[in-house]
Amino acid sequence: MPTRNLQAVGGLLDGPDNDVSDVGKPFTPQAFIDGKRYRELTRRESYYACTQHDAKRVNFDGRLLLGVQATQPLLSTERMSAYVPLSQRRPSAPYRLARAVDSAFTNFVVGEGRFPGLRVPGDHESQDFLATCARVGMLPLRAMRARTLGGAVGSVGMSWAFVKGKPRFQVHNAKNLFVHEWEDREALIPGHVTECFQVTNEEFDPIKKGVVEVAYWYRRDWTMNTEVTFKLAKVDPDGGEPRWEPDVAKSCVHRDGNTHFVWIQNQPSETIDGLPDYDGQYEALDELDTLLSVLVRGAKLNLDPTLVIKEDAIKVARLGVKKGSDNALIVDKEGGDAKYLELAGSGIDAGLKLFNEFRRTILEVAECVIPDPDQVAAAATSAAAIKALYQRMLSKGGALQEQYGAGFQQLAEPILFIAQARVQVPVTQYDTDGTPVEVDQSFDLPQRADPRPVLGDDGEPTGDMTADMVDRTPGEGVDVDLVWPARFPPTPADQASIATTLNTAAGGKAVISQQTGTELSAEAFGRDGQEEWKRVQDDAKQDKADAAKQLADQGGGAGSGGAVAAQHAMPPGAKPKGTPKPPGGGGNPGEDTGQTPDEGENTPAP
User: Fold this and answer.
1) 481-483/117-119 β-pairing
2) Fewer beta carbons under 10 A from the terminal one: N or C of the chain?
3) In terms of pTM, does the model score above 0.85?
4) pLDDT tens-digit map of 63-88
């Protein structure tokens, strides 16, 4: 494909032939971010971003926080004169369980080694093209980001494009997305989407003679035939409408009849926004943070116990009290006493039991399993044990897999058929000055290595392999299927048990070929299976050659049949079968003439 500004917008954005009149629909960004939906999605995301307590201006010790926008560090001033409830104080030791739940489901659905394979039935060329696009565009990594963001907000957007012939996939926060119209509301296929949010740039202010932060609006639109990125528009402090100006170099008119954009719900709901992983658990998560902060504060204060002195108060006030290993405390012999007042450990133990029970309840409602590493290690003896450990997550995890799998399919199929439609068609590309240039469309993808056997001078394969480098093309495939890897693959113990059972059932005979066993063993050690099988074959050939050489070096010892000089040659002293007898006799006694009795009788005398 050519550069991103394929049939670039340029100065032709308002032209009647470009079909981009819908891009300029009225859109007030300030009203968008002040809306109810934006505030709700921001609240959901704050539990994953660990910012849900940032609006609280009193720390857990009851001191006022000034000028603090981030959770850390906690800068405090004087203690508040009035009592502030614990729920209104910023926790000093928040647990962040919401982030752990989100990450657990992301790893369960599209984590390491769990991204689905893209298959195009009946067309290996199209399948290879699509898999290469996913690899070059880092789609598995983008999928993890999309699942994480969708699990936090409830929905997520993904877009795709070819930038200078290279595939590019991007993830978009649903709270920053506004759908002007739907192509198919029930299938959640958008027809026109706007992404808008504020960004800040550091700029030099000549009046203040220093660097200041200036706020700008970022906007990007997707329609069925265009993709337009606008130049940054400065935020009006009075809330005025910004002036939107398309950025030519980052915009295009593709006329594909596809928005190049996919909307994915995390958990289905009646609204366009799905549900986050920890839906309905916000109050419980806040209480968990407060409870842990109380436990930490109590334990911390217990490390500095209170000194209790049983003595005349006036005398103590006159003499003062000094604590520490370098000081001694002297009291009266009669009636005087001094001791430390410490919190009982039973209170902390009770608090920890309550905390763990609260945590278990939240995970149970969220259908999430976050096992202890020791539990995983103990269950790692079999796939069945690991599956039982994660039983609670299977139903919800399967639903999430279906949700995001459908989104990945909607993302992959247009890439394939649009690439097929464009690969043979030259297009007009406009530069920044609006000058038209006809270019051929191509893809900047790494070439594919097609292996073929090396032939010798006699035209027969030598056993070595080489590769021909060929360009990747989108082929002619249409449908795209997803092949999800096994969520709980057999462990080595499972594989050994299966092999033993099958071997016994087969009466001790092999149930898999040597090549298959070699390839599986090589993959277990992170090696290429086909390469290792080739090496096994080479080693076998070399062992056979060494054995033949050793036999030849022995020179025909007892039982060896004699040394052979060349292939098909006879050992020393041997004669071909049917050799005539020498004249006048039958040869030496015991000599094998190579004739059968019948042959000797029917052979004429010389």
Assistant:
1) antiparallel
2) C
3) no
4) 888 755 545 444 445 566 678 888 88
